[in-house]
Amino acid sequence: NAGVTQTPKFQVLKTGQSMTLQCAQDMNHNSMYWYRQDPGMGLRLIYYSASEGTTDKGEVPNGYNVSRLNKREFSLRLESAAPSQTSVYFCATNPWESYGYTFGSGTRLTVV
Amino acid sequence: DAKTTQPPSMDCAEGRAANLPCNHSTISGNEYVYWYRQIHSQGPQYIIHGLKNNETNEMASLIITEDRKSSTLILPHATLRDTAVYYCIVSGDLKTSYDKVIFGPGTSLSVIP
User: With contacts defined as CB-CB under 8 Å, which chain A residues touch B87?
Assistant: First the structure.
């Protein structure tokens, strides 16, 4: 099915470990986004990429890095995981031509 | 900070219209009103958006007041599958800018049998 694919769906890390969350879209969209959602709260923007080759910080970028590998893929890296980064991470895309974001199904990350 | 205010929760009887209000008193002239919903722990789903005219699609209707300081999302015949958190968002024209979409806590809608 066309859409936004996030991997992995679940992950448990120990404090200090690193990992990369992957996001891939097959809709030929230009802009891509990474959000995090903590329990009972709305989504907060971590980083976004308006187009291939560009990235910008969102509201809560500290502790994260991103790579827009190509038009399809936008990865989020945690270099040294902390318990405060326990959250659900959502990737989203937007094609410019329309106004609705398409979200992936999320990665549930627990840092112990 | 989110630019919108929504009630934290609402109930609606199945088959009845669900009217979800949103206040956005500081909206500027070039900002749109967007609505998304999030069912259980899935990713948010886009519903509808508008600038100043009322809008309707296959999912819902959006009514924006003349002064644009508030709006109402209407689900005409709510079903149990409409139980979700509904987010009202004010943002720039995403077609021409990369304005970030800020999600507040939203309204948790419970559709009751």
Answer: 42
Sign of CA dihedral B108, B28, B49, B52: positive
Report the C-alpha gap between B67 and B54 in whole angstroms. Answer: 13
- Classify B57 in phi/psi space as left (phi over 0), alpha (psi -120 to 50) or beta: beta
A96 vs B contacts (CB less than 8 Å): 94-96
Residue B66, both tokens: 């003349």
* Residue in B71, B63, B75 with CA at minimum distance from that of residue B17: B75
**pLDDT greater than 60 at residue A60:** yes
- Provide the residue type at B111 as one letter: V
Q: Does the pLDDT of residue B98 top 80, yes or no?
A: no
Place of tokens 């002239």: B29
Task: Please tell me the distance from the alpha carbon of residue B104 to that of residue B86, in angstroms, as a whole number.
Answer: 10
Closest by Cα among A22, A32, A100 to B95: A100
Q: What is the pLDDT of residue B58?
A: 94
Please give the average per-residue pLDDT across B38-47, as a whole number: 91
Tell me which DSSP letter residue B69 carries.
Answer: S
User: Coil, strand or helix: which one is B104?
Assistant: coil
Residues forming a β-bridge with A47: A34, A57
The contact set of B with A (CB < 8 A) is 2, 32, 34, 36, 41-46, 49, 87, 93-96, 98, 100-106
